Amino acid sequence: MGEARDLAGQWADAEGFPTEVIEDVRLVASELVTNAIAHAAGSAGVLLRLYRCEGGAVVEVWDADANKVPEIGEPDVVHESGRGLFIVNSLTGGMWGWQRLADNKGKATWARIPCTTTRT
User: Fold this and answer.
1) How confident is the model at residue 71 (pLDDT cuts 50, 70, 90)?
2) Does the CA dihedral 83-86-92-96 come out positive or negative?
């Protein structure tokens, strides 16, 4: 997950995003990759894709499990995990989602980070 965070940060920096957006891209990439690795049963690996969109950046993570639907859990201060999508939702203002791949052999989870981040 550290590698995903570093790659995402390097990409966002090279694209010229402001520091706060770079940090959000890094964190969202790390959370989505972590979720894909932890929850995608039988996944042979994940693919991280980063690209610009109008007014921001998109982080997209593909994994091989089309059946495990990403869901926001209730934040739990006792457990170390379970807050990833809650964080992603907060950083993106709810602009995230997922879709099954056309061949139904996996899914893509995406999040859009606006340049003017509004946190909820």
Assistant:
1) confident
2) positive
